[in-house]
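Q: Can someone sanity-check these two? First one:
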Amino acid sequence: MLGKIALLMASLLFALFLAEMVFRLNLAPEPAYVVSSEWWKDRWLRKRKGKNPKEFVELDRELGWIPAAELDDHPYQGAHISTNSANMRGAREYTLERTGAPRIVTVGDSYTFGQCVNDDEVYGGVLEELLPGSEVLNLGVMGYGQDQALIRLRREGLPYRPDVVVFGFHGSNMRRNLLSFRDYAKPRMRLVDGELVTENVPLPTPMQVILDPWPPRMWDYYVMAGQKDILKRPEVREEMEALSEAIVHQMAADAAEVGARLAVIHLPHPAWLKGDDPFGLPIIKRLCEGENPSNLICPTALDRFREIVVDKQTQSIHYECHFSPQLQRAVGEAIVESLREEMPEVFGPAPAPEVATAG
């Protein structure tokens, strides 16, 4: 009897081993997309690389990934990308010492980084154009969650002691806050007794991810099977929104410690131009309307976007690949308008309108 049980157990273990090998050798069908760390990890393991092109990325044990340094007019998706020696978008170099010029740090994801537009077309470049003499340090990174934006701001933005931090708020980033793996392993923040606590750091090396035996790959597939429509679960939505609001408030508090203010600008998906953004605008309204303990600056580009994107044809043009140069400029114009209104002592008042004279 014991022999039969032992044989049965051995057979079961061998079957589980074979099943695990099927998953580890990527012989199982690629699962349909779900919002989960397990899906993104499976995708990375299948391709042995992150989503972003290899030449754009340097892996980072604290942030996951950052743009490669000193890219020189690198062609990508119809645009050219440069980065400076500090892994910031744009070739311009900045010093930690203040020069007396107004200084702005921008943080966010690919919309802030400026995917699909040239260095001077991204809204950070537009700010430097519209605010002559200013310094704008672009710390946006493709694929970032809001948690990563906060960590990069703390580590690489606030030491420059900016006057303003601009946070590009895109609704999809709220979902990324729930992940510990996306284009690569990433930090994961949780709220513990009302405080943000960072987990999953230092991040594993690629070889550690590949060789890690736990959890088994078949367990990841089992988890993915139960994650369909995960964002519709009330407890998940509640955590996602609470994390997002806490991160924004923490950005404002950290900025205030170096004498800066936080400007939060909503970057809308095209489907949300005609109505409320279910993944962003309600939180922006809660943060910016009524009593605002974080003293935020809240520029909005929605009206400008609606003037540009008037139908499906213009939508396909301006949202073909992230934001078109025209939409990026609209974001920059909205930010400049708010900064001049809220901080005229730093950025100067809005220029007086030109008065036509009789010829």
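And here is the second, same format, sequence then tokens:
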Amino acid sequence: MINVLMIGTGEYTTGFVSGSMAASDKRAGVVGTTLFDLRRRGLVDKLWMAGTNGTKFPEIRNHLKRGIADVYREMDVSFESFPADEVARQPDAYLRALDQLSTGDAVVVFTPDDTHHEIVMAAIERSCHVLVAKPIVKRVEEHRAIIRVAESKRVLVAMEVHKRFDPIYIDARDRIRQLGDFSFFQSYMSQPKSQLQTFKSWAGKSSDISYYLNSHHIDFNVWACSHIARPVSVRASAATGLAQSQGIPAEDTITLMVDWENVATKNRATAIYTSSWIAPKADVHSQQRFFYMGHLGEVNIDQAHRGYTLASDAAGYSSLNPLFMKYTPDADGFFSGQMGYGYRSIELFIRAADEIRQGRSQPEEFRGKLATAQETLLVTAILEAGRKSLDTDGREVKIRYGNDPYDISL
């Protein structure tokens, strides 16, 4: 069994935000629920969790007991935490947590974007495998450095992008690759205004809504068109006002306009990625959809609406997607969300890391199967180019390619 350290204690890990249960569809978290269940199933052994404020851990443990242990049979939610409960502020507590791990153990990182590089590099230096929230990092040079060190240490580093495990997105990706040259892609993804408060500590300071949301469909576009087409330039535009009125120095909505080039034919393509966190409260927490056009056909997906709705006195009207995470227990009271693509994206990484730890596989064998650092460099390039464009009044930023596969610069 493999040991796992969770770094970051927020919404995606625990479902605990600003002293209470998250108001989103992740009230029990995703990372924690998955890893507790993987321990129940015998894949995971020891679990640690590291944050920056130890005084939050008693509340987090109570939250996990109410949201997980009291809901599912035989679900142990215990973990060792860093820093200690009486320590109010210790930003580098994760380093002491990393010291508990052994070569080949796994680290799952869900922290603000500007902290990823330092944390991931520290984990790699200890020869641990790392799954990190998208984007892996904010800058191409940081991403390239991670690839170099990960390859030298023979460890697996991957980005957690669960859409790669959504059966509909998988099928769309396979069909897209049969539609000839890439021509046009347009995506939209939003979250409600409440997220501005959820992420107010880093919004506009350490990252923006494009890094947070556009990264999903940028990764899908890169994955779907890998070895078929590549991005060559980026221009960005933003809408502002609402976040700033709440004292948050962030854009409300960001659109990236990206020119692509088909590798074989040199035919050009266009992609438009839009993300926002000022949407009204609606039937889903996150509106998300895309349209793809190739020379031989088109694909259109409304990911948020699967034709499954619920109306209740307690929650009103909502569109449901248990294909992501199924939180309702089975007939025997056990957690039964193992087929959800939010769960599978974490489980498959943990299984890959364990296979490498045991010497049964090599890190490069998981390229094409997971969103490895090697395969997601272009995602970082597009996102960084978008930020550079925004910071220079929307000027075009070129993506340049050298002879080496990872020789990419802006």
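A (reply): Looked at the second one. The first helix runs from residue 11 to 14. The chain has a mean pLDDT of 95.
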